[in-house]
Give the backbone structure.
Amino acid sequence: TKPLLNTRQDREIKPKYIQRYWYQIVADQIADEYRQKEYTIYREYQVDDIRADLYAVKEDHKVIIEIVTSE
């Protein structure tokens, strides 16, 4: 049976696609790292006048994380 999609093609990923998803990949990785340390993670969380990309909380320890990207 012939596969519907050939996944063995050598293909370069264009920068515009990498840039589109880079923020989400980085946010997911950072969130996973904090979850492994037993933090609770909130995304797009408002802390006073700051909009945190990620907000990590573990007991009395709170971490505000802003992910900076360049265009």
User: Anything to note?
Assistant: The CA atoms of residues 2 and 8 lie 13 Å apart. The chain has a mean pLDDT of 88.
